[in-house]
Amino acid sequence: EKPQFPGASAEFAARLEFIQPNVISGIPVYRVMDRQGHIVTPQEDPQLPKELVLKLYKTMTLLNTMDRILYESQRQGRISFYMTNYGEEGTHVGSAAALEDTDLVFGQYREAGVLMFRGYPLELFMAQCYGNANDPGKGRQMPVHYGCRERHFVTISSPLATQIPQAVGAAYAIKRADANRAVICYFGEGAASEGDAHAGFNFAATLECPIIFFCRNNGYAISTPTSEQYRGDGIAARGPGYGLMSIRVDGNDVFAVYNATREARRRAVAENQPFLIEAMTYRLLPGTALSSFPRGPAGCLRAAGGDASRSIGHHSTSDDSSAYRSVDEVNYWDKQDHPISRLRLYMAARGWWDPEQEKAWRKNSRRMVLEAFEAAERQPKPNPQLLFSDVYRELPPHLRRQRAALERHLQLYGEHYPLQHFQQ
């Protein structure tokens, strides 16, 4: 006799026994390269062409350079806020390379490398962080809240996990349109504790949506270590409970990330089902893997407060991670398992990269970032009138009254505002 209950597939049991949380051994971490850049199993090598591997590496290192300069500019008060991507570059470019250009991306706030891989120009990264007149968002978002319709990258919003059910809705719409596209939704393991994550997982599974949930598990949700966030086996272990195909990968191995995302994307589109990828990584030091880079524009961007390496992988510029983890812990990950250095070792072993090329690329990438940085600083802020635009097709009466009140106020008291720094 078998149970006929509609809510589960199971057998009857005659013995009272609760299921222990550790009854199943930990989900293994899929990898392709070891920490020295050697391919572990030749059959798993994606055999990417040299040009693509170089693009992966240059995107990762360019992102690292941009992070350092914008991080230091925030410390000097040039921008209001910033979030770095140190240590997680492999999750960005490995997954981005595995997608089609038309696949829709819902980021959290640490996926700038995905947008960079898709060709988003440095000038627009800088414009957004400065909120200047060239900012596509017209200065109305916090820094690092990028978006680009042309590159199918949905504008980032600050609240944790709100993008997860939105991404599922987009994936369901794509399924109904039979559009041969997928959606990828990025989030951290801390965001996976939000109710939106659980709702999104359940909707995606029951509606059979072509979506990839990509969780960056970097060990900390701001200041909360994973040991205090959950008692289960990470995030990938939750997938089967919701009916999601799931895998855990080495997020510091760009090829493992690429392989997992590529296969998940193929099957999500072909089979209309959701996938969950948990990429294990670590939030690293500002400037790691490129530590010999100069400190920014000569004479104007020295690291505030001394050597930037003393700042250990903060969640954002609003955070001080030295309060909840040790320098030794961070240094271990920096020296033993960095995604950039691992890929560099792989390239060097094949004769695709050498110290001279490294030196030239460092110099060139720094120059490109600084040129975009300096150009962004010279641009004025957006016109204050833009406060009222882009919400309604026709400006409603209450906003017209507010706009008129602002104009009167600036006519009377304009000398007290730095209007010369705003676009006229």
UniProtKB/TrEMBL annotation:
It comes from Galbula dea. Residues 57-286, 312-384 form the Dehydrogenase E1 component domain. Its cofactor is thiamine diphosphate. One of its GO terms (cellular component) is mitochondrial matrix. Its EC number is 1.2.4.4. Its main location: mitochondrion. Keywords: Metal-binding, Mitochondrion, Oxidoreductase, Potassium, Thiamine pyrophosphate, Transit peptide. Belongs to the BCKDHA family. Gene3D superfamilies: 3.40.50.970. GO terms for molecular function: branched-chain 2-oxo acid dehydrogenase activity; metal ion binding. Together with BCKDHB forms the heterotetrameric E1 subunit of the mitochondrial branched-chain alpha-ketoacid dehydrogenase (BCKD) complex. The BCKD complex catalyzes the multi-step oxidative decarboxylation of alpha-ketoacids derived from the branched-chain amino-acids valine, leucine and isoleucine producing CO2 and acyl-CoA which is subsequently utilized to produce energy. The E1 subunit catalyzes the first step with the decarboxylation of the alpha-ketoacid forming an enzyme-product intermediate. The branched-chain alpha-keto dehydrogenase complex catalyzes the overall conversion of alpha-keto acids to acyl-CoA and CO(2). It contains multiple copies of three enzymatic components: branched-chain alpha-keto acid decarboxylase (E1), lipoamide acyltransferase (E2) and lipoamide dehydrogenase (E3). Pfam families: E1_dh (PF00676). This is 2-oxoisovalerate dehydrogenase subunit alpha. GO terms for biological process: branched-chain amino acid catabolic process. It catalyses: N(6)-[(R)-lipoyl]-L-lysyl-[protein] + 3-methyl-2-oxobutanoate + H(+) = N(6)-[(R)-S(8)-2-methylpropanoyldihydrolipoyl]-L-lysyl-[protein] + CO2. SUPFAM superfamilies: Thiamin diphosphate-binding fold (THDP-binding) (SSF52518). It is found in: Mitochondrion matrix. Heterotetramer of 2 alpha/BCKDHA and 2 beta chains/BCKDHB that forms the branched-chain alpha-keto acid decarboxylase (E1) component of the BCKD complex. The branched-chain alpha-ketoacid dehydrogenase is a large complex composed of three major building blocks E1, E2 and E3. It is organized around E2, a 24-meric cubic core composed of DBT, to which are associated 6 to 12 copies of E1, and approximately 6 copies of the dehydrogenase E3, a DLD dimer. Interacts with PPM1K. It is an enzyme of class 1 (oxidoreductase).
